[in-house]
Specification:
The chain is mainly alpha-helical. It is 54% helix and 4% strand. Helix 1 packs antiparallel against helix 3 (43-53).
Length: 147
């Protein structure tokens, strides 16, 4: 798996590349000179295919979130209590939709913050929460507990 990830990391930043009928990477100019047919390869699509073959479907949000939680738990890092949103593909526009949090998520974040020993600013930043939103949760939590 480690070798696969290193291979993907080394190629994913490339633009489309071309391979000949034997699977060797070749420049289109060189193939044209030799009269060789080539197949264009999109590194991102190829990376997704290879990861899926290895049992990691990057389009499965539940699997990705489970992996993220496991890694965070094993490494003792930030709390992850929300589901990941699909990231836009290259040909789609980025959504400006606001994040929404369920009451259970808010309570879980507040509990995780209390146990973290970190500043509110640091905790919000590490968990990708808007600081003003995070601060508002404290007033919401106080209102809920006073009822």
């Amino acid at each position: 798996m480690k070798d696969l990830l290193k291979e993907i990391l080394s190629t994913i930043k490339q633009d489309i590349y071309y391979i000949d009928d034997k699977g060797n990477q070749i420049k289109p100019e060189e193939a044209a000179e030799k009269g060789i047919m080539v197949k264009p390869i999109n590194p991102k699509i190829e990376a997704k295919r290879k990861l899926k073959e290895a049992g990691v479907d990057v389009d499965d949000d539940e699997l990705i979130e489970d992996l993220r939680v496991v890694l965070n738990q094993l490494r003792g890092e930030k709390f992850s209590g929300i589901k990941l949103k699909k990231t836009p593909t290259d040909n789609s526009k980025k959504s400006s939709k606001r994040k929404t949090y369920e009451d259970g998520d808010i309570i879980a974040y507040l509990n995780a913050y209390e146990k973290s020993g970190k500043s509110k600013t640091q905790f919000a930043k590490e968990n990708d929460i808007n600081y003003q939103t995070f601060m508002r949760w404290f007033t919401l939590d106080l209102k809920k507990s006073s009822k």
